[in-house]
Amino acid sequence: MKYLKLALSVFSLAVLFSMSVSCSRGGGSDDVFPPYVGNTVGDYSVKITGSTGVQIGSVVVVIDGATHVLAPQNGNVYTSPTYKGSNFAASVSATGVNQSSTLKVELIKNGTVVKTSTAQGRYLAASITD
User: Fold this and answer.
1) CA distance 125 to 123
2) Which of its termini does the chain have fewer beta carbons within 10 Å around, N or C?
3) Is residue 35 part of a domain?
4) Whether 122 contacts 101, CB under 8 Å
5) How far is CA 84 from CA 13, 27, 36, 66, 114, in A?
6) What torsion, rounded to 10 degrees, do the Cα atoms 67, 69, 75, 76 define?
7) Contacts of 102 (CB under 8 A, 6+ apart)
């Protein structure tokens, strides 16, 4: 059980790392692609809600390439601190009580829920990006 929880956390970190790494281009005069226009800067946070008995294990947030590992206290509801930036990703792992346990992760940008990710089962993992 302990190793499974660790494996889920490592998997979550690996997913976030792979999402945060981007390809770079030379930027020389022979560049045929238009410049990348990124997301606008905003205030980001995630709200995590689990069904009864769900224990949130780990929350990993990447904002503009900076990784933050959060440790929620025991419980099935958690709201992260607010981060200012333009590229945001979050990954959450949790443990449910049975196969019908659920986990919902909401991405909040500038006070509005813009994306939602859900998971169901005994071992729960959800990721969300903007």
Assistant:
1) 7
2) N
3) no
4) yes
5) 21, 27, 20, 11, 15
6) 30
7) 50, 51, 54, 96, 118, 119, 120, 124
Asked whether residue 36 is domain-assigned, the answer is no
Please give the residue that has the higher pLDDT: either 6 or 57.
57
Domains: count for the chain: 1
- Say if CB 33 and CB 113 are below 8 A apart: no
Enclosing domain of residue 101: 2-20+41-129
Q: Does residue 29 form part of some domain?
A: no
Residue 34 lies in a domain: no
